[in-house]
Structure formats: structure tokens, C-alpha cells
Amino acid sequence: MNLTDEEKIELLRIARNSITSVVNGKGLPEVEPKTENLKTPCGAFVTITINDTLRGCIGYVEAIKSLAETVNEVAAKSALEDPRFPPVEPYELDKIEIEISVLSPLSSVKSVDEIKIGEHGLMVKRGWRRGLLLPQVAVEHNLTREEFLEHTCLKAGLPPDCWKDKETEIFKFTAIIFKESDFKLKEGENV
């Protein structure tokens, strides 16, 4: 999938509107996807930061709903339901930066040599446990391929070297990643 700048801006608006609405107690807003890309079922994550510090990140790996609906839902969940953080408060709304990662379908990894830092995100799965790290995590933390795999295993609540075990499934994916500052968007701004 290739997204136009207009579609990226629309998704960022959807995410901002969703977060603002749920944080202010107004519930999840309705969305009407305007283009074929935004109507296409797709996995996506919404990451919320304040001053480059993570404040919430939740997403759907599977393509269950349209991209627009997925972003609408996971934006709200990132603001209110990330168990690592308290819910976003209304006073924080003008401080947050929203980043969206639109995921490709998962692809099974046969050899760790297939994994490209900066291009691929990872998901490990073993039994009912699974962990996922977006492509930007490896770059932001300057991780090697092995460290990226270890961190993904830890995210799943598994031992760091579980990726070497035949019982562990490893998947890679790519993502289209964009954020409000890419388009100089701020709360209340009409572009």
C-alpha cells in the first residue's frame, strides 16, 4: 500500500480527533473512510509521545477493520488503555505527538539474516505468548539484529534467547511510519 500525504494527514486527524474525544470523556467518534486506501483492512499502531518519551502505544497486527477505523480505535486505546501508563489527561493533549505505523502483512522468518534493521519490525510467537516491536524501535535504541530479537522475546514475556528455539515462530513486517511533526500538524490546526 502507498499512502498519499493527504491520506496520512487524514489518518493523523482521525487519531487526534479520537484521542481528544475519548480523553475528554466523549466516547469514540465515528469515522467515514474517504479513499480506497483508508477503506482497506489493514493493521496499524498509534504511538503517543510527549517530548520524545513514550506515553502510549497500541495497535492491531491483523487486518480486521478498515485502516481508518483501525487508527480511530487504536488511537483511543493508546491514550487510555496502554497498561504501562496512566490514561492521557486533558491537560496533556496539547503536548502529545502522534505517530502512526501502517503495517504490511506478517511474513515468516526462515533465517535471521532476512531481518533488516530499520526496515523490518518483528513479532515472536510461542504458545499463547507473543510480542511485537515496530521497525523504528531497533533504530531508536541502536539495536543489532540479535538484540532486536531478544527485546522482542522479552516483550512477549519470554526468555531473551527464545528466538533460537524451534518452538518459537518469528515474523517480520514493514511499516509506513509518519507523525504529526512530519506535516507540522498541531491540535486544532486546519490543514
TrEMBL record:
Domain of life where this protein originates: Bacteria
One Pfam family here: AMMECR1
InterPro entries: AMMECR1, AMMECR1_dom_sf, AMMECR1_domain, AMMECR1_N, AmmeMemoSam_A, Uncharacterised_MJ0810
Domain AMMECR1, chain residue ranges per copy: 6-189
PROSITE patterns for the chain: AMMECR1
Transmembrane intervals: none
PANTHER family with a match to the protein in the record: AMME SYNDROME CANDIDATE GENE 1 PROTEIN (PTHR13016:SF0), AMMECR1 HOMOLOG (PTHR13016)
Protein name according to UniProt: AMMECR1 domain-containing protein
